[in-house]
Design brief:
With 571 residues, this protein is an alpha/beta fold. The chain has 15 helices and 29 strands.
Length: 571
């Protein structure tokens, strides 16, 4: 197995945290939960595409981890005595992105995923060491582009941007080949026997070529959901993996609930698209929405929560319990309780802009989008905190940022610290009482017009990038006919449910719905999708922790109502 020199890990974290060496007592505690086995030189312990359901601790000898490629294997790292394999996807049992094999004869301790999850919850010291290493290793794989995926496309295509977003926000390492700029494109296309250059291609594990795949096809190819059992009745299913949903997943799984999260795209929701959140408790220097979501996602998996990615909820069958959630692919999931946390979507402001979404029109401002509009003028539409964060972030790389705000001030909708930064930034101009009225562009946005509603003055500008962060529409259509909604489509819960609401919904219990409970017993709603919610990350996280206490009460009531099986007595 010839390999090239090891890839240097130079992206921030210290090596002793990424590749720690365990002490003999620490190895002994892992050994107590695993089994010792001998390995010969060349033995493959884990191959690319195989479910990552085992951790290996080196007792003697050496293990190598390499990226497998038809053009030559690339050594990633070598483990010696006291060191261990694995990264964050081990917690979910997803397929491995690299090969692990023995470089020489020796012995290893094999620990199964189930025993590892038990250890992470029971052993605080080892939990800290292992979790930190797992997370940092995945960060380094992403930063180095060391994965089992090659994306070939052009940033002029909205489909390419969509694929890059899906892989990036789901934390999957990949390398990107730009058809417009990178050398060696022909060699890559010839290797996979492809001549077409009219749409992006995803080369999965160096063998399967997907042409402009859907998010669900990518998830299936990479095995995102391979380790999730959909055949058993869950204690609770959380729909949506934004801050509220991830919070509920962490608290619910840590308290022993059999919990499944269903997410349409990627963890983080709208908050995951925020470039930097600076008013969230405990992060004085700020944290990106994607980093916050990634940490919460890892926490939920650490406690045993299952997460389905790219599986939209199509409808809730709300007859007699257990409830059944039907997914877009026809799969049905049964559960005793439901937590609705799939949030809202930004409202589309112009039909012409909708035609070039992803190719000049975006609904979040992350590092990816910032690179696409470097040194160009951009427009941010909206006057809330998300718009303010985007404007400040984009001003670091854009030539100029124009903020278009329909109202006459920012103070009613934006935090003061953001207002001050916007006012003092030389490359940000706020235009009040202004909105986009038209846009032009075929494959990519090329030109927009905006109008001042006070004067009626219209201006046209050759602007190629617009970030839309306006009023939001709740994602509640899949609950149609089940839960009571307000006149704007948000879900009513708790005391917002009037007596006539409950009568119309045929509320069957003597008690009033709990604080976050909908008009369906055992179905809860929280975060942005809930009527009257405070649109803040902190409040969403708080609701996620609160709702689990009510889920416990619902499950206890269901258990008490079940008929007790009497033991048979033989006379």
């Amino acid at each position: 197995m010839a390999d090239s020199p090891a890839m240097p890990f130079l992206h921030g974290a210290r090596e002793e945290h990424i590749f720690p060496t365990l002490t003999p007592p620490q190895v002994a505690r892992l050994t107590a939960r695993g089994r010792i086995q001998s390995v010969a030189a060349g033995d493959v312990l884990l191959d690319v595409g195989e479910p990552m359901t085992r951790l290996f601790v080196v007792s003697s000898g050496r293990l190598k981890v390499e990226r497998v490629s038809p053009t030559g294997n690339q050594l990633i790292v070598e483990y010696t005595s006291g060191q261990f394999t694995g990264e964050i996807t081990l917690l979910a049992g997803r397929p491995a992105v690299a090969r692990v094999y023995a470089a020489e004869p020796g012995t290893v301790v094999e620990v199964s995923r189930d025993r590892l999850l038990d250890l992470l919850q029971a052993d605080a010291e080892l939990s800290q060491i292992l979790m930190r290493a797992f997370i940092l290793r995945r960060v380094e794989l992403i930063a180095s582009g060391l994965g089992d995926v090659v994306l070939v496309g052009s940033n002029r295509w909205s489909s390419t941007v969509r694929l890059r977003e899906f892989l990036s926000h789901n934390g999957h390492p990949f390398s990107f080949v730009d058809l417009d700029r990178d050398a060696g494109v022909d060699e890559i296309l010839n290797r996979v026997h492809v001549e077409s250059r009219i749409e992006p291609m995803l080369i999965c594990r160096n063998t399967l070529v997907l042409h402009n795949p859907t998010n669900e096809q990518i998830a299936d190819c990479l095995g995102f959901n391979a380790g999730v059992d959909l055949n058993r009745i869950r204690d609770v299913v959380v729909v949506g993996a934004g801050p509220a949903g991830l919070s509920a997943a962490v608290y619910g799984a840590s308290e022993g609930l059999d919990l499944l999260v269903i997410e349409t795209r990627w963890p983080g929701g709208q908050a995951g698209l925020s470039s930097r959140i600076e008013n969230y408790l405990g992060f004085p220097t700020g944290i990106s929405g994607q980093d916050l979501a990634g940490r919460a996602y890892s926490q939920a998996q650490k406690f045993g929560a299952d997460v389905l990615i790219a599986k939209p909820a199509l409808r809730l069958h709300c007859g007699q319990g257990p409830y059944v959630i039907e997914l877009a692919d026809g799969t049905r999931v049964s559960t005793r309780a439901v937590i609705v946390a799939n949030g809202v979507e930004y409202r589309r402001i112009c039909e012409q802009l909708a035609k070039v979404e992803g190719a000049g029109v975006y609904y979040g401002a992350t590092f990816l989008e910032a690179q696409l509009c470097r040194d160009e003028d951009v427009v941010v539409v909206g006057g809330g905190n998300s718009a303010g964060q985007a404007a400040v972030f984009l001003a670091d790389t854009a030539s100029h940022v124009h903020m278009l705000v329909r109202s006459g001030n920012l103070s009613d909708t934006m935090s003061r610290y953001l207002i001050r930064r916007i006012e003092e930034h030389p490359r940000i101009t706020v235009r009040f009482f202004t909105e986009i009225i038209s846009a032009q562009g075929d494959e990519h946005l090329e030109h927009i017009e905006w109008r001042d509603s006070r004067t009626g003055l219209t201006e046209g500008h050759p602007i190629r990038h617009v970030f839309v962060m306006t009023g939001a529409v709740p994602n509640a259509s899949w609950l149609e006919g089940c839960a009571v909604l307000d006149d704007k489509g948000f879900i009513k819960t708790g005391t917002d449910l009037a007596a006539d609401d409950l009568a119309r919904a045929r509320w069957p219990l003597d008690r009033h719905p709990y604080l976050l409970e909908t008009s369906l017993p055992g179905v809860f709603a929280m975060g942005d999708i809930r009527c009257g919610s405070v649109k803040r990350v902190a409040s969403a996280v708080g609701e996620g922790s609160i709702v689990i206490s009510f889920v416990h009460q619902v499950l206890q009531a269901l258990a008490a109502a079940e008929p007790q099986t009497q033991p048979q007595v033989t006379v």
